[in-house]
Write a structure and sequence with these properties.
This protein is mainly alpha-helical. It contains 6 helices and no strands. Helix 1 runs antiparallel to helix 2, helix 1 (9-35) packs antiparallel against helix 6 and helix 5 packs antiparallel against helix 6 (153-193). The longest helix has 41 residues, at 153-193. The protein starts with 8 loop residues before the first helix and ends with a helix.
């Protein structure tokens, strides 16, 4: 990061790629959850844990490639929450559908709150802020739906989680494209001028 707040060449490649991979993973998991909604609770626990671990790694990478204090802290918090959710899901693999629903609900709630909080960090563009707000609100709405109807069961949870993952993945891929588009043109112009 330069002193003016623009991204350097290394950061422009890392951030969009990690966002892109996270979005594509979310879409893939969402599609699998929709295609095989009758997945067992154990398989869904493993699927959720894998997603949470990958999300934790990608958030940690994004935290360590940023030099903005609040962004680093927010991304590290998301990484820790995702890691904790994945560990809890694997340590107790035989929870009932109700417990699994609550684990996913709390994870979605905390993720949504942190994403909305990240909107208020400096250096965010309007489009990125809009997608963070939309993703955060969607996560919170998903959590509230699970808290209101925890009796949905594993089959319904897989379908709802699949739809949520697809939308979240699409919004993340769009954000990655926006970040890439916003950071590369100035670099190309600067390279052409020098």
């Amino acid at each position: 990061m330069t002193t003016e707040g623009t991204l350097t060449g290394d950061e422009t490649g890392t951030i969009p790629k990690s966002l892109l991979w996270r979005g594509l993973l979310a879409i893939a998991i969402g599609v699998v959850s929709l295609i095989w909604p009758d997945v067992t609770v154990g398989a869904f626990v493993i699927l959720f844990a894998v997603y949470a671990f990958v999300a934790a790694v990608l958030d940690a990478v994004r935290a360590f490639t940023s030099d903005r204090g609040w962004s680093v802290a927010g991304r590290l918090l998301l990484a820790v929450l995702s890691l904790a959710a994945g560990v809890v899901a694997l340590v107790w693999p035989g929870p009932t559908a109700l417990v699994l629903t609550l684990i996913v609900g709390y994870w979605a709630l905390f993720t949504g709150v942190v994403e909305i909080a990240l909107v208020f960090t400096s250096g965010r563009r309007a489009g990125e802020r809009a997608w963070l707000i939309l993703s955060g609100l969607l996560s919170i709405a998903f959590a509230l739906a699970l808290f209101i109807r925890p009796d949905l069961g594993a089959l319904s949870l897989a379908t709802v989680f699949g739809l949520f993952s697809i939308f979240y993945g699409i919004s993340t891929v769009v954000t990655a494209g926006d970040v890439r588009r916003l950071t590369h043109p100035p670099r190309r112009v600067a390279d052409a001028v020098s």
